Amino acid sequence: MTNQLRWLALYKKAIRNYIIKNGKPDLVHVHVPFKAGILGLWIKRNYKIPYLVTEHWGIYNNLIEDNYVSRGIAFKRYTKKIFQQASQFISVSDYLAKGVNRLVGKKEYEVIPNTVNTDLFFYKEKENSSLRFIHVSNMVPLKNAEGILRSFKKFIQQYGNVELIMIGDKGSVIRNYAKSLDFPIGALRFLGEIPYTQVAAEMQKADCLILFSDIENSPCVIGEALCCGLPVITTNIGGIPELVDQSNAIMIEPKDEESLTQAMHEMIEGINKYDRKKIAENAIGKFSYSVIGKQINVVYGEVLASLKQ
Asked: Is residue 123 part of a domain?
């Protein structure tokens, strides 16, 4: 509690100093209601400045352990109040917004997806001819990296010149499990945690992103892969169906390793049907900073206009 109070005091001081120096802003944009929304409430009460809120946090389900329902009374009370007093609610997916409305309370919303740095993630023609799958995540259990490894092991029993790149593991658990599967030399590489720029470079050298999660909201990694022109194999969960379609993805059910192996076969056998340049072009038109920025500016204008009525 002491740390929370210190955090609030520091931010309140910073906000006061900002207003003294620059004057009052017309609008405050809160990202993730708790804890930033507490400051939004304080600013609204003390300075009469309205705020809107964008929610990214995928806790409004019963699949993750640390979900909204499991949280304490204070968390729920403040979250509900933050949404109620917001002048507008933006969600990164329709799936997430419906979860908020189901558990927190009814609130009209706009869907604006997560953005992608298209200066890093863009189409680049592959320099190598070898076929390559790529997986990028923190590899916590809900990402089901072990299921990817088992499915890929079955896949390479029929295909030789195919590689799987795993990016983002923080420890030895997944690597040790991979060793137990006894992959052929050159079939599997772990790159660990690497700089963001290198993630983009590795995607540009790959042929397909694999995401086999048990639960997701609106994963940034899919937008990043699409902006590089990569088709995607992904589970049909959460907000993912809002990001992909048949022109750029194969969707399967979570935990279905047989379907994942089959999707790998389907992807490699039909890889030439995917127009990577068009995938990238469409994705940049959906996720780039400029596109998302324009959508947010429209919402700002609508909120400010409604307050003048």
From this structure: no
Whole-structure pTM value:
0.93
Structural tokens at position 257 = 């390793």
Closest among 264, 273, 277 to 227, alpha carbons compared: 277
Residue 1, pLDDT above cutoff 70:
no
Q: What does residue 189 show for φ and ψ, rounded to 5 degrees?
A: -135, 135
Q: Is the pLDDT of residue 267 over 80?
A: yes
* Beta-bridge partner residues of 191: none
Q: Please indicate, yes or no, whether residues 279 and 142 belong to a single structural domain of this protein.
A: yes
- Asked whether residue 120 is domain-assigned, the answer is no
Same domain, 98 and 145: no
Share the mean pLDDT of the chain. Answer: 94
Q: Kindly write down the DSSP assignment for every residue of 118-150, as one continuous string.
A: TTTS-----S--SEEEEEES---GGG-HHHHHH
pLDDT of residue 111: 98
Bridge partner list, 188: 164
What pLDDT does 308 receive? 81
Integer Cα distance of 168 and 155 in angstroms: 22
- pLDDT: is 61 or 143 the higher one? 143
Look-up of token digits 């137990």: 180
Separation between Cα atoms, residue 78 and residue 30, nearest integer Å: 14
**Range of 236's domain?**
131-287
pLDDT of residue 86: 97
Q: Are residues 214 and 93 part of one domain?
A: no
Asked if residue 159 and residue 240 are part of one domain, the reply reads yes
Q: What confidence tens digit (pLDDT) does each residue in 7-32 have?
A: 889 999 999 999 999 999 999 999 99
The CATH number of residue 32's host domain is 3.40.50.2000
What DSSP string runs through 225-287?
A: HHHTT--EEEE--TTGGGT--TTTEEEE-TT-HHHHHHHHHHHHHTGGGS-HHHHHHHHHHHH
